[in-house]
Structures are given as C-alpha cells and as structure tokens.
C-alpha cells in the first residue's frame, strides 16, 4: 500500500537532512528516502573545519549524525529504500522504490554526487583492494604503509593530511606545475608543511598495478612524457564528482555536465519538484551550501503546496465561474481597478466568485500562467478550471463583457 506524504526528500545528505528539518518544522508530513545511512559524502569526510559555528572543527560523521537526530526530533520519517522510478508530472508525485511506492505533493531531489573515476587500467579491478575514494572510510587499513593521492582540490589535500595520521607516507599526484594546487590556501599550506606528504608535479596516473592488491602505480609526466612506477600500497582518488541524476535524466532539465538546473528557489522545470545540494548546478559544493539549498527548497515547497491547494479550492474546482484579478499592491492605480472589479462581482453573487491575487508574491500562479508584473493588473475568467477569457484593460465596459 502506497504511503502518502506532503513532502518527500530523495537523499539523506546535508541538503536532504536540512530540507527534512525545515519541511517537518512547517508541519508538513515529511519523509527522507535514503538507501544507506544518512550523511551522504559528508559522512565520509574526516575533518570539517569550515562549517560555521565549529571553529575548532568537527567531523563529517558527527555533524551529519547530529543533523539526522535533529530531523527525527522534528518528526521526519526515514525510509530505507532504493528509488527506481519517478512520475513527477501531475499534482501528486509518485516515487517508486524497491520496497514500494510513495506519494507526495512535492518532492526535493537531493541525491548528491559520487566520485569521478580515473578510468585507467586496474582501477575497477582493484577497487576495494587498495583503490579507494574515501580516506575517512579506509585510512586505518593503510597504517604504516605508503599511499598515493590523486588530485589537488580541497578533498584531495584535506584527505591527504588525514591519511598522514595512519600512513607511513602520502604522495600527491598533481597535474599542475610545482606549487600550484586547487585547494584552499589554509589546507594547502598545512599540506606543504607536512613531513609525511610528498609531491609529484605535472603528472597523471596511467595505470594502477597489482594482482590481488595494489602494489604500484604508473605515473606519466605530462610535459616530458616520461613514465615511472611508484611503489604504493594504496591509491586514493579525488578528481571531482559526478551528479547522481540518472533517475531524472529526460525528466528534469540538466546542464551539459548532468547537474539539475534550478532557479534561486531551487525550483526545477517541473512544478512542485525541487533540487538541492551537490546534485544541482551551482558555484560551490560544500556542506554549508547544501544545507542552505535544502532549507530554501523546503520553504519553497511548503509555499507551493499551500498556494496550490488554495488555488484548486477557490479556482480550479469552483462550481461557479471565477473572476481572478491579478494585481500589484504597491501600484495605486492598479489597486483602484482591483476595487472596481470587486464592486462589479458583488453585484452578481449568484453568477461569479472573485479571487484577488497578489501576482508579485504568488509564485505558483505567476509561473503557471506566465504572468509578468508589467502587465498588471488584468483579469482571467475561469470556467470549469480553465481560462475562458482574458481582460487586459480593466474598465466598466470591459467588465460588462464578462456577463456575455
């Protein structure tokens, strides 16, 4: 039997957890669907030293566990399931999981991203046998051993520093010239000062070698073309991420890299569907921005649900024709014309209902009917839930046309 919710959040990373907190706090029946433990990629990050309020730093598992407990305290339901299908058009969204179907009035996609592969020989064969994408998960397996880290961004440099607590040595394989990394200056400076971290510049990994476990990597200098083998017991790969958008491909609008396109309210191209966190097209992918995305998406979803239900009750399902006047409250002349419409409709209470809409605030109606504030005020006459007439110039004569 399908479960019914106001808000369903797909993904239990920081974006999804924040969305759940804000959704439940707004008294929406909210659930988070996550196939594993809550936390997402953040739960595999050792140190988080740039999350506001945690000056001395915290860990990814600690922070995301606290977020999950916060969400549960507000009444968020956690569903452990794998989503295999989506039907997002229509007022009720249908989410199909391996364990059942779930219905929702609004959906937030917060599926996150996953590590990008090097796609070199040996990577797939030795994954989990020395090839890793998570130092926090696997660092203790390499105690007093030699490892390599591929990449130079924040994740690569910060996880390399974490590895030095366990490994005998950590060799960074960096594609840039000597001294140039993509990480933030604070993390880079600490890594440069570490006695355990070595650097191989202008280089890429050509192959990962070993029979049953990693025993070396073949490194190629991109300037000279020279190749050399580096003996290591493990290799940690941090060369970017790929969004988990296979489920929504062909349904939601994506950018060329596969990230979901949204506006600043996290709205996608489908009404009532939002995206938050690493899965969407954005400038900065950090825990703090994921949390912001999720919060915004949940507030926008709550407003959408409220506006849609009111619109359906007063306009779409009205047994009588409905005169809808759209206006801008700070336009005095427009407000006077709205009053004129009000007086007119009151003369014919048996014929019409009147709905006044502040089109500068009602996002649902504004988007659904492509309303421009420059065109305000104007009128739509709805009959049977459909637009039967449009009146752009409000006057006594035009209003009398409504009677016809």
Descriptive report:
With 404 residues, the protein is of the alpha/beta class. The protein has three domains: 184 residues, FAD/NAD(P)-binding domain, CATH 3.50.50; 107 residues, FAD/NAD(P)-binding domain (3-Layer(bba) Sandwich), CATH 3.50.50.60; 86 residues, Glutaredoxin (3-Layer(aba) Sandwich). It is built from nine helices and 21 strands. The strands form five sheets. Strands 1, 2, 3, 4, 5, 6 and 17 form a seven-stranded mixed beta sheet that branches. A five-stranded parallel beta sheet has the order 8-15-9-10-11. The mean pLDDT is 93.
> How many whole angstroms does the radius of gyration measure?
28 Å
Major sheet size, sense and barrel closure:
7 strands, mixed
- Strand pairing plus helix content: what structural class? alpha/beta
Rounded mean pLDDT is 93
Unreliable stretches (pLDDT < 50, length at least 5) are none
CATH homologous superfamily title of the largest domain: FAD/NAD(P)-binding domain
- What is the CATH fold-level name of the largest domain? FAD/NAD(P)-binding domain
User: What is the count of β-strands?
Assistant: 21
Helices and strands, in order, run as EHEHEEEEEEHEHEHEEEEEEEHEHEHEEH
> What is the CATH architecture annotation of the largest domain?
3-Layer(bba) Sandwich
- Give the N-to-C terminal Cα separation: 49 Å
- Oligomer class: single chain
Structural domains: how many: 3
């Amino acid at each position: 039997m399908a479960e019914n919710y106001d808000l369903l959040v797909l993904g239990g990373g920081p974006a999804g957890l924040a969305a759940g907190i804000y959704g439940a706090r707004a008294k929406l029946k909210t659930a988070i669907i996550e196939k594993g433990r809550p936390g997402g990629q953040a739960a595999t990050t050792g140190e988080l030293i740039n999350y506001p309020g945690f000056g001395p730093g915290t860990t990814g598992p600690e922070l995301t566990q606290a977020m999950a407990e916060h969400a549960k305290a507000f009444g968020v339901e956690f569903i452990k399931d794998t989503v295999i299908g989506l039907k997002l058009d229509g007022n009720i969204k249908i989410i199909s999981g391996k364990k059942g179907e779930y219905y929702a009035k609004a959906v937030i996609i917060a599926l996150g991203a996953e590590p990008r592969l090097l796609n070199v020989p040996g990577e797939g064969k030795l994954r989990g046998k020395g090839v890793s994408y998570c130092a926090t998960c696997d660092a203790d397996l390499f105690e007093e051993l030699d490892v390599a880290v591929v990449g130079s961004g924040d994740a690569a440099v910060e996880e390399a520093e974490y590895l030095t607590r366990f490994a005998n040595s950590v060799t960074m394989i960096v594609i840039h010239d000597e001294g140039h990394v993509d990480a933030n200056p604070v993390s880079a400076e600490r890594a440069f000062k570490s006695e355990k971290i070595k650097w191989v510049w202008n280089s890429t990994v050509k192959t990962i070698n070993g029979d049953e476990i990693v025993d070396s990597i073949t490194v190629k200098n991109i300037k000279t073309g020279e190749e050399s083998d580096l003996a290591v017991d493990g290799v940690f790969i941090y060369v970017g991420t790929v969004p988990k958008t296979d489920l929504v491909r062909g349904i939601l609008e994506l950018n060329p890299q596969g990230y979901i396109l949204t506006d600043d309210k996290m709205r996608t191209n489908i009404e009532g569907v939002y995206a938050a966190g690493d899965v969407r097209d954005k400038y900065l992918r950090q825990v703090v921005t994921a949390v912001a995305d999720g919060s915004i998406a949940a507030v926008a979803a709550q407003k959408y649900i409220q506006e849609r239900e009111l619109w359906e009750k007063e306009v779409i399902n009205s047994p009588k024709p409905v005169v809808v006047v759209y206006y801008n409250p700070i336009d005095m002349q427009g407000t006077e014309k709205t009053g004129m419409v009000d007086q007119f409709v009151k003369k014919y209470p048996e014929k019409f209902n009147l709905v006044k809409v502040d089109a500068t605030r009602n996002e649902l109606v504004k988007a659904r009917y492509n309303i421009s504030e420059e065109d305000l005020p104007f009128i739509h006459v709805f009959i049977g839930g459909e637009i039967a007439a449009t009146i752009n110039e409000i006057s006594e004569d035009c209003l009398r046309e409504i009677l016809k």
